[in-house]
Amino acid sequence: MTTHDEPTLEHPGEPAHDEGSALTWSVGAVARRLHVSPSTLRTWERRYGLGPTDRTKGGHRRYSESDISRVELLHGLIGRGVAPRTAATLAATHDATPVAHPTPSADVHDALEAPQLFAADVFTSAARFDSVRLGRLLAAVVVEVGVIDAWDAYLQPALHHVRQAVVDGIIGLDAEHLVSDTLATELRAYVRASPDLDRSHAGVILATVDDDPHSLPVVALQAALAGRGVACHSFGARLPAGALANVIASVHPAVVSLWSSSPKEADDHVWQVSSAARADALVVLGGPGWPARMHHESAARVARPVNLAGTVDVVLARLADRTGE
C-alpha cells in the first residue's frame, strides 16, 4: 500500500492502463529529503511558484524530480547567502532535467558519453565541493578522450559552464577555483605518467606572461605535447619578462609559447624579450590578449594558432624542422 508520504509511480492525467510512468513525491517526502519543513516548501510555492507540478490520479499534488531539483537549488542558494527572490529566479530558470544532476554514485565514465553530461557532472561536483569525484572525472576524460579532444570538446565547455554559474550567482568563486586547481593537478599527473618523453632537444618553453594569472592553457599544452612524446620547460603563470629572457638565453629554444588572456600593448616588454629569440626559433602567441600587429619585429618566426590542436601542430612541425636541419 502506498502512503501519501512516499514516492509513487504515477502518470498524472493519463488512463490507468497507460504504460508510461514517472516517479513523483509528496510534500512530506520532499521535506524530509531536503531537511526542511513542509510549511517552508508551501511558502516557497506560494511566494515564488516553485512547487509540485504533478498530480496523482486521486488528485494528490506531487513533486517530480525536476520540481525537486529546482527546490533543492533554491534551498542551496539561500543557504549560501543568495537573496531568496534572486535564488528563486535562478532556480525557476534552471534546466532541471534528470541528466543535469548525475548521482554521486554513478560511474564517472557515464559522463563521458556526451560533453553536456560531463559539464553538468563537473558543475554538480564543484557545487558540492566533491573534490574526489571531480578529480576522477577530469582524470578520466584526459586519459580516455585524449588531451586535445578533451580540452576542445569537454573541458573548455565545462569550464565555461562553471564560470557562467559563478557570474549568475549560482555557485561561488571558490567552486571555480576548485575545478581549475583540480584540472591543473590532473593534467600535471598526466605529464608525469607519460613514458619516454623526448628530452633530446628540450627546446620548448611554455609560459603565461608576467601579469596573467591564467595558467591552465599552458598546462593543457604541456600535457598535449607530452601525449605526443615531447618534453617542455613549463613555467606556469606570471613569468617575469626578465626571467623569460634568462631562460631563452640559456636554453636557445626551438619554440617559445606565450599565453596572454589580458590585452597587451603592441610594444609590450614581454614581446620585446621574446622577439630576441634566435632566427630559427618559433614564437607562438596564444590567447586573446595579443594585438593583431606588434611594433617590434622579431627575427624569429611567429605563429598564432587558434586552438590547442593547432598549437600542437605548429610546435611539432618546428621540432621536426630542427631535427632535419
In short:
This protein has 325 residues and is of the alpha/beta class. 49% of the residues lie in helices and 9% in strands. The model is unreliable at 1-21 and 97-105 (pLDDT under 50).
Can you describe this structure?
The chain is an alpha/beta fold and 325 residues long. It folds into three domains: 8-95, Multidrug-efflux Transporter Regulator, Chain: A, Domain 2; 99-193, Methyltransferase, Methionine Synthase (B12-binding Domains), Chain A, domain 1 (Orthogonal Bundle); 204-324, Cobalamin-binding domain (Rossmann fold, 3-Layer(aba) Sandwich), CATH 3.40.50. Helix content is 49%, strand content 9%. It has twelve helices and nine strands. It has helices at 27-34, 38-48, 65-79, 84-92, 115-127, 131-145, 147-167, 173-193, 216-227, 241-251, 269-274, 308-324, and strands spanning 8-10, 22-24, 54-55, 61-62, 204-208, 233-234, 255-259, 282-286, 301-303. The strands form three sheets. Strands 6-5-7-8-9 form a five-stranded parallel beta sheet, with helices on both faces. A two-stranded antiparallel ribbon has the order 1-2. α5 (115-127) packs across α7 and α6 crosses α8. The protein is elongated, with a radius of gyration of 26 Å. The N and C termini lie far apart (82 Å). The relative contact order is 0.07.
Topology:
Elements: E1 8-10, E2 22-24, H1 27-34, H2 38-48, E3 54-55, E4 61-62, H3 65-79, H4 84-92, H5 115-127, H6 131-145, H7 147-167, H8 173-193, E5 204-208, H9 216-227, E6 233-234, H10 241-251, E7 255-259, H11 269-274, E8 282-286, E9 301-303, H12 308-324
Parallel strand pairs: 5-6, 5-7, 7-8, 8-9
Antiparallel strand pairs: 1-2, 3-4
